[in-house]
Specification:
Helices cover about 80% and strands about 0% of the residues. With about 425 residues, it is an all-alpha fold. The longest helix is centred in the last third of the chain and has 38 residues. The two termini are about 30 Å apart. About 55% of the residues are buried.
Amino acid sequence: MSMQGDFSQSLSRIKVLGIGLVLFFMLLTSESLVAAFPTIEIELGLNKTQTGAIYSSYLVGYLLSALFIVPLSDKLGTKPIMLFSVLISVICHLIFPAIYSSILLSVFVRSLAGAGLAASYMCGLRLIAQSVEKNYRGFAVGIFVTAQYMGHSFSLAFSGVLMSYFYWTDAYYILAFLAIFSFPLLFILTKNISSRDDASELAGKSSIIIALKNLIIRNISLSYSLHALILYAVRSWLPYFIFGMLLLHGISEDFSSDFSSIAAGLILIFGGFGPIAAGMVSDFFGRSNTIMAISLASIFSCLILGWFDGVPIAVKFVVLLIFSLCISGSSPIYSTVINETKGRHRLGDAIAAQASIGLFGGLLGPIILGLFFDNFKPEFGWPISFSFIAILSIIVFVLMLQVKSFQKHELRSSSG
């Protein structure tokens, strides 16, 4: 029996939602560090570039995992790798509050946690993408990706609330213990699922380079890299932006400090519905068309947020909500295209190419914005940052135009 047949029989809709819930629980501590940045900067005497580097160490682990662990899913199957990765992530977050004062140890532990996230997330995407029909694939993957965004977003919101009552390490521990539930839940949900690949999936030499020779995989991976750069940059510095925005509009510093993380979390929670909506839209209007439309909306959002200080604060919050939908919405579409693209490559290698190249951008995002803030006055830092994000969105638009043109050419060739 083929792998897809096995998946179709063993993975119900309830299990799809359940595996998304696993990711949600696992990520409850993912943004606690962001909420604690102001305290950690003062306590350890760090500048914004250094804190951005600590945050990005999470993505270093993600990148290495994508290169060396995710491709193993072709040989070992997605289930054992996903179980092991979730366990590693949970353990690392339980350790982090005890060792954060050592920069080297905190970078190492966060790197391991990032590796756990990469393997569990990418294997989960593969599991779900191959379990549903193409007409509903974007929506199904969107549900899983939304669980990821909700995990990140609720992490920031919960951390902000808890840190209003507890010291940040205590708040981190509370969420880390809740995250433990992710492992037994995944074990129960996948107990009767076999995710080993059949022989046809293992044909040919394993190589990310071979996968990248395919124009669609190459452009999707590059676009995903720019998407990740924008996403992680905004996710890590959004509380800082809201804090400055509130001060600009005359809100007190104490209230702005307490409210900024909570507001950022709520905005990202709203944006978490973007993957479901965009995935469903892409099922009807096409993957490339949907990503290009999202890119255009992002460009206009950046112009308003970066250059129009006189806009009422309520309007800015509305634009932030739209922008949050944009930066999250395209993620499941990229993953769906990778899973749908056929060629002379192994699927595990194509997924690894997307994850490794994609998260290289995510690794740079927080650092680049941190450099902007450290080297430019506050009144210039955000206009430059949003202009930078708008330029990246334009590049994504062009890359997707190429993908759309290539797909049309292939369709004509096959029909001719």
